[in-house]
Amino acid sequence: MKESWVIFFILGLIMLNYPFLNIFNKPDLFLGFPLLLIYIIGGWAISIIVIYLFTISIIDKSPRNDGQ
Hints:
The chain contains three helices and two strands, in the order H-H-E-E-H. A hairpin with a 2-residue loop joins strand 1 and strand 2 (about 35). By secondary structure, it is mostly helical. It has one domain (about 1-60).
């Protein structure tokens, strides 16, 4: 599970690096918003969802101590 955290951290760093930011840094608009803004906010939202799903899977796999 720790390897997955490292992989997604590295993917997040790559997502915020020059080549990808340059791809979306265009004057085009999507629903009235610049593509770069949608890319950054969308990536942020996806990373939060991934962290949530990993946390849920870790909680489900952890041994529980109910006092028994």
